[in-house]
Design goal:
Blueprint (H helix, E strand, L loop, with lengths): L1 E9 L3 H9 L6 E4 L8 H4 L4 E2 L6 H12 L6 H21 L24 E2 L5 H15 L3 E4 L2 E9 L2 E9 L2 E12 L20 H9 L3 E2 L4 E8 L12 H5 L3 E3 L13 H15 L4 E4 L5 H7 L1 H9 L9 E10 L2 E3 L11 E3 L4 E2 L11 H20 L15 H19 L11
Bound molecules: flavin-adenine dinucleotide.
The site of flavin-adenine dinucleotide (FAD) has 41 residues, from α1, α2, α5, β6 and α11.
């Protein structure tokens, strides 16, 4: 079966849906999600979204981002994001995202590790849900946007380094979708790891297809571990204990109550310190102690974490939380320019699947949603400018077995990551 549209967007997280709602309303847009619509990492974000509060904060934000990224960031990208942060955040506020405010109606800001000031907007500890649902609701209102849930992209349709659309599986049927422009917004790679905070359906399809078609990639070894995932052996994915809990005073301790690391160092540093300490002391996990904050504050400020831990028998106002590091985020990805263009004609990318160079070696907390918001705006602006000159190219797709293609995609990605990060081999599925 064939479909045609102006713009095909693979991914319905913040990057994909925000691209869709910023495109001209006379364009025919198809958005794919490979599972239930909410099963994207954008929905899971807890801590919040960074903003740059004012001109004085700009150089400090730039320095914090560079320092966390071990100065391996692309400086022009960091400046670009700093310059467009306020505008991107204002667009979200105008759409109606319910960020927390004080009693006078002013936005409240929280802090996370390696930020030198409070500059993160949040919505309790379900910030991603609040942002994503607002953008989703806007997308659902638009008549020109068709969202296909449970529709799994398995291949691109490519002719002479030019993308003409994609092939997806929907209700066990191959669906060829032809588009003038295609946007990959398919998220990170957590689904290929045994232990990850990501939803399992986020398996790096954009990266594996880029590998298959020789689309330029960058920094494939920059894989971030989050230091504090809830330590449990029975969950589909690891539940994140947000960094803002540490930002607001929680301490990392061992089973005897001793502190062993500065909790507010960048994520890679804290994760490595925990792994080393756990190994030396032969501990299954370490503990995160938020008891000093008191029950009332913890319930109000971190309701999701409070409830989740309680379900697992931990009252965080009385007991420290068992935590250990696991895969969380992919800083590398498809190399894009400042408009989101990739090395393949008519193919753009934004969000976690892309590598803008913003994060360098290690992402600063809450910079990912900001990057997705800024770059999806830019991708939409670019497409709005050029789409008139683009033409549909209907190249017949020779049907291939979907299961084989899915397996091939995953295999190519896993073997690449194995080569890039030998230290993480045992963390990969099918190692
Ligand atoms: C637990 C958790 C907490 C986080 N907290 C924060 C935070 O507080 N602040 C912050 O800035 N960042 C945070 N992050 C990171 C951030 O949420 C993500 O990096 C960001 O949301 C990525 O957005 P995205 O739109 O690129 O991808 P996602 O939101 O992951 O969306 C990917 C989309 O691609 C679709 N897709 C994937 N494969 C296919 C396929 N084969 N076919 C069709 N569709 C496909 C999925 O269905 C999904 O709709 C957190 C991440 C996690 C996991």
């Amino acid at each position: 079966m064939d479909l045609v549209c102006d713009v095909l967007i693979v991914g319905a997280g913040l990057a994909g849906l925000n691209t869709a709602i910023n495109l001209n309303e006379d364009l025919k847009i198809i958005v794919l999600s490979n599972d239930k619509l909410h099963r994207c990492n954008s929905y899971l974000a807890q801590g919040g979204i960074t903003t740059v509060k004012n001109e004085a904060d700009k150089p400090i934000f730039i320095e914090d981002t560079l320092k966390a990224g071990a100065y391996e960031n692309d400086v022009d990208t960091v400046k670009l994001v700093a310059n467009h942060a306020k505008e991107a955040i204002q667009k979200l506020i105008d759409l109606g995202v319910p960020f927390n405010k004080d009693e006078n109606g002013h936005l409240k800001y929280t802090k996370e590790a390696a930020h030198s000031t409070n500059r993160i907007l949040y919505s309790a500890d379900s910030s991603g849900k609040a942002i994503w649902e607002t953008v989703r609701d806007e997308a659902l209102k638009r008549k020109n946007i068709k969202i296909l849930e449970e529709t799994n992209l398995i291949d691109l349709i490519v002719k002479n380094n030019e993308v003409c659309g994609g092939v997806a599986i929907r209700e066990n049927t191959n669906l060829s979708i032809y588009s003038k422009v295609t946007v990959l917004a398919s998220g990170g790679i957590g689904g290929i790891f045994k232990n990850s905070t990501n939803y399992r359906n986020i398996k790096g399809v954009g990266i594996s297809l880029a590998l298959k078609y020789g689309i330029e990639l960058k920094d494939l070894d920059y894989i971030q571990l989050h230091p504090t995932a809830f330590h449990s052996t029975c969950e589909e994915r690891k539940f994140l204990i947000t960094e803002s809990l540490r930002g607001e005073g929680a301490k990392l301790i061992d089973d005897k109550g001793n502190r062993f690391v500065d909790e507010l160092m960048p994520r890679d540093f804290v994760s490595q310190a925990i792994i080393k300490y756990k190994d030396e002391k032969e501990l299954p996990c370490v503990l995160l102690d938020a008891r000093d904050m008191g029950e009332k504050y913890l319930k109000e400020r971190f309701p999701k974490i409070f409830t989740h831990c309680l379900k697992h028998g931990i009252d965080i106002s009385k007991d420290p939380i068992p935590v250990s590091p696991c895969q969380h985020y992919f800083m590398g990805g498809i190399k894009i320019d400042s408009d989101g263009k990739t090395s393949m004609k008519n193919l753009l990318a934004c969000g976690e699947v892309s590598c803008t160079g913003l994060h360098g070696k290690n992402r600063l907390a809450s910079n990912s949603l900001l990057e997705a918001a800024v770059y999806s705006n830019r991708v939409a602006d670019y497409i709005n400018k050029v789409i008139e000159d683009k033409k549909l190219s209907i190249v017949p797709y020779t049907e291939k077995n979907a299961e084989t293609l899915n397996k091939e995609n995953e295999k190519i990605l896993i073997s690449t990551i194995k080569n890039e990060r030998k230290d993480l081999i045992h963390e990969l599925l099918n190692n």
